[in-house]
């Protein structure tokens, strides 16, 4: 049974009975997210396949607005496009919403995403210890990487080689 209040404020205790849908929870409030475009899904597939083939048997990959708990109080739940969890982080394949930091989060920007909103999302991921965050902007063809151990973001274009994760370097244009 849900403990959602009449004001539709979600708490961590609601985690196991959250309603279906495409949303995040920010400080207890549901923030709906619209459907993505075809190209967005194509990028998710590309990155999932790269991680699966290049890091074979080293971890687990999932796509499709994977829930990640940022904080229990106030309750913050983010939804990531692509996540990678190394076996060192989780020896068993994760199930359900993640209550620990994945090793890699990849976000594919949609037309409706704003820089302030994405910055807040990156800050949330870094706050829980995500080792690497990659933001892919299909509209400007730019990639931004945020390693957890550095305050400096790195920028490159689709024609530039960059580190996907754990020594796996790619040039996105070669794959598209």
Please name the defining characteristics of this protein.
disordered N terminus, 10 strands, tt1808, chain A, alpha+beta, 3 helices, globular, six-stranded mixed beta sheet, 176 residues
What would you say this structure looks like, in words?
There is one protein chain. With 176 residues, the chain is an alpha+beta fold. 19% of the residues lie in helices and 36% in strands. It contains three helices and ten strands, in the order ββαβββαβββββα. The strands form three sheets. It has a six-stranded mixed β-sheet. A two-stranded antiparallel ribbon has the order 1-2. The longest helix is centred in the first third of the chain and has 17 residues, at 38-54. The model is unreliable at 1-6 (pLDDT under 50).
How do the helices and strands line up, and which of them pair or pack?
Elements (H helix, E strand, L loop, with lengths): L22 E4 L2 E4 L5 H17 L4 E14 L2 E12 L17 E5 L6 H13 L4 E6 L4 E6 L6 E4 L3 E5 L2 E4 H4 L1
């Amino acid at each position: 049974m849900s403990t959602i209040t009449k004001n539709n404020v979600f708490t961590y205790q609601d985690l196991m009975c959250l309603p279906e849908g495409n949303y995040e929870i920010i400080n207890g409030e549901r923030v709906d997210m619209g459907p993505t475009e075809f190209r967005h899904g194509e990028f998710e597939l590309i990155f999932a396949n790269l991680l699966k083939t290049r890091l074979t048997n080293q971890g687990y990959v999932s796509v499709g607005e994977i829930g990640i708990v940022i904080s229990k109080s106030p309750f913050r739940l983010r939804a990531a496009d692509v996540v990678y969890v190394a076996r060192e982080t989780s020896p068993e394949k994760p199930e359900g919403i993640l209550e620990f930091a994945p090793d890699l989060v990849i976000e594919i920007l949609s037309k409706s995403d704003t820089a302030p909103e994405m910055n807040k999302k990156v800050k949330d991921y870094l706050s829980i210890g995500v080792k690497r965050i990659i933001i892919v902007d299909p509209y400007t063809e730019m990639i931004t990487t945020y390693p957890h151990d550095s305050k400096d973001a790195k920028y490159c274009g689709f024609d530039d080689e960059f580190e996907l994760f754990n020594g796996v370097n790619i040039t996105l244009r070669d794959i598209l």
